[in-house]
Write a structure and sequence with these properties.
By secondary structure, chain A is α+β, with helices and mostly antiparallel strands. Chain A has one domain: 2-Layer Sandwich (Alpha-Beta Plaits). In chain A, strands 2-5-1-6 form a four-stranded antiparallel beta sheet, covered by helices on one side. Chain B is mainly alpha-helical. Among the domains of chain B are: about 110 residues; about 120 residues, no CATH class; about 60 residues. Chain B is about 70% helix and about 0% strand. The longest helix of chain B is centred in the N-terminal third of the chain and has 33 residues. The chains are: A alpha+beta, B mainly alpha. Chains A and B meet through helix 2 of A and loops of B. Chain A: This is Transcription initiation protein. Chain A: Belongs to the YciI family. Chain A: It comes from Actinomadura rudentiformis.
């Protein structure tokens, strides 16, 4: 099963941007469950794109202005939701932010 | 010609199907989910198997092992359906492999197999009560798949529309499937956090039924019976889990008081005023014995402590004989194990009975000041009772009025109004 871990946090999470993952990436890479991922620069630098009536519409900023913003993501592949929960719970960001686990459509 | 004997047999067969439904539904569904991985298919095939039993048992007699017969019949239906749906050969082989695990064909219920169907109900319980599902979905799934209630019945029991309940069940099953919630008993390291979720669902079911007023839908009242049945299954499947045994003991000790809890008019009768001869001695005896067995394991938990409190009440043949000091101590233990303001309020009530209202009032007032029970009608109700016993009639009346403004059901309203009338007459 493939899951996307969406890591969200409020503004205070920004101070953890340089923290790294405290061995999490190394452990999960060794386990062979990581399929990709990365940390995102702040939502202030986001550009949102929509195409309506052949017009490209751009907005400065993220999808929605909300208290919690996505600050990183990680694509994992593992046995089931229990393993995905265990992987997510071990991520340092789970200690100060929130991690949403989203199963992917099968390909 | 149909003689009296055959009529009797036929009646017996219908009863046997009813009994099998109660006893075997969960196991048949659980086994089918285990094999097919398809929750809807499992339910439909279980339903078909029971329909088939209703047709053939009156004619051919009740099989020696109804559970094995039903599981085989359901598995055959699943094979048929999967074949018609042209699923892969691998899945069909898997379903067929069940035959080797579990001998016994419908109509061939010979003594050559021991009827042991691998019991998948524990897997089903843990999956239904997976914390990634919302509590209301956990409850609904448990009732549908393990207890065999229909969607309409579950909807009625929880006072929501059938459409809402149907959507809730569908969404939960889709999440299990698409998010790959595993169909299993969690490994040992996860059990301490997952077992309480299963116990909590069963206790919620019990309480929903137990709190149903006299005029409520019978389906709702029957929830307590379903919870007890499922707790019995759980204790058999997890014999080393003292909290599961504690929960079953707790339910039995509460259920023993069921018929004494409401008077002829449907009014709630307080514990101290209940006719204790109407308590079910059988349930009290079983609950107490289970509790003793659980406590001997030396690993107390919230359910065992609550059962111990219920056992203290059950042991008193007159309300005046209640060992309130012991109950207050047990509530102290419960506050430690499972802190909650409601438990603290109950502890205050016990202290009030053991050491007098003057000792309890400061505890209640501290709770009140903390605001943690804001809007909970029993807080002012308890305060009112303590004030009444202290002879402070005017303060008591004010507190009864506060409680009345918050009380949810008719019976409790009537009780509080009676008390209010008493204190206003006295003053």
């Amino acid at each position: 099963m493939k899951y996307m871990l969406l890591i969200a946090g409020d503004e205070s999470a920004a101070e953890h941007a340089e923290d790294g993952c405290g061995g999490w990436s190394e452990e999960m890479t060794a386990r062979g469950v990581i399929r990709g991922g990365g940390g995102l620069r702040p939502p202030a630098e986001a550009t949102t794109v929509r195409v309506r009536d052949d017009q490209v519409l751009l907005t400065d900023g993220p999808f929605a202005e909300s208290k919690e913003q996505i600050g990183g993501f990680c694509l994992i592949e593992c046995a089931d939701l229990d393993e995905a929960i265990e992987i997510a719970a071990k991520h340092p960001a789970a200690g100060y932010g929130t991690i949403e686990i989203r199963p992917l459509w099968p390909q | 010609m149909t003689g009296a004997h055959e009529v009797h047999e036929m009646h017996g067969a219908h009863e046997a199907v009813d009994r099998a439904f109660r006893d075997e539904w969960g196991q048949v569904v659980a086994t089918l989910i285990g094999v097919t991985g398809d929750w809807d298919l499992a339910e439909e095939c279980a339903q078909d198997a029971f329909a088939q039993a209703l047709q053939t048992w009156p004619r051919d007699g009740v099989p020696e092992r109804p559970g094995a017969w039903l599981t085989t019949a359901a598995r055959n239906r699943a094979t048929d359906r999967l074949r018609r749906a042209a699923v892969g050969a691998a899945k069909l082989r898997e379903v067929a492999a069940m035959e080797r695990v579990q001998a016994g064909e419908p109509g061939n219920d010979g003594p050559d197999h021991d009827g042991t169907v691998p019991d998948d109900r524990l897997r089903l319980m843990f999956t239904c009560c997976h914390p990634a599902l919302a509590l209301e979905a956990q409850v609904a799934l448990t009732l549908r798949t393990l207890a065999g209630l229909t969607t309409a019945e579950i909807a009625r029991a929880f006072l929501v529309g059938e459409h809402t309940m149907s959507k809730r069940l569908t969404r939960a099953k889709q999440k299990i499937r698409h998010a790959a919630i595993p169909y299993r008993v969690p490994p040992a390291h996860l059990l301490p956090e997952r077992t309480p979720a299963v116990l909590a669902v069963l206790y919620l079911l019990f309480n929903e039924g137990y709190s149903a007023s006299a005029g409520a839908d019978p389906v709702r009242a029957e929830l307590s019976g379903e919870a007890i049945r499922l707790a019995r299954v759980l204790t058999r499947l997890m014999p080393d889990e003292p909290e599961a045994v504690g929960l079953l003991a707790l339910m039995l000790l509460h259920d023993a008081r069921r018929s004494a809890r409401f008077d002829a008019a449907g009014d709630l009768v307080l514990l101290e005023d209940q006719d204790r001869t109407r308590w079910d001695a059988g349930e009290i005896g079983e609950g107490t014995a289970l509790l003793d067995a659980a406590l001997r394991r030396g690993s107390p938990g919230p359910y065992q402590v609550q059962a111990a409190i219920a056992a203290c009440h059950a042991a008193a043949t007159r309300a005046g004989d209640t060992d309130w000091a012991q109950i207050a101590a047990l509530y102290g233990e419960l506050v430690r194990l499972a802190p909650s303001p409601v438990v603290e309020l109950n502890r205050a009530v016990a202290v009030g009975m053991a050491d007098g209202p003057a000792a309890a009032l400061p505890l209640v007032e501290a709770l009140d000041a903390s605001g943690r029970l804001a809007g909970y009608h029993l807080l002012p109700a308890v305060r009112a009772d303590l004030l009444r016993r202290l002879g402070r009639a005017a303060d008591a009346a004010a507190a009864y009025r506060d409680a009345l403004a918050l009380a949810p059901t008719g019976a409790e309203h009537r009780y509080l109004r009676r008390r209010l009338a008493e204190v206003t007459e006295e003053s």
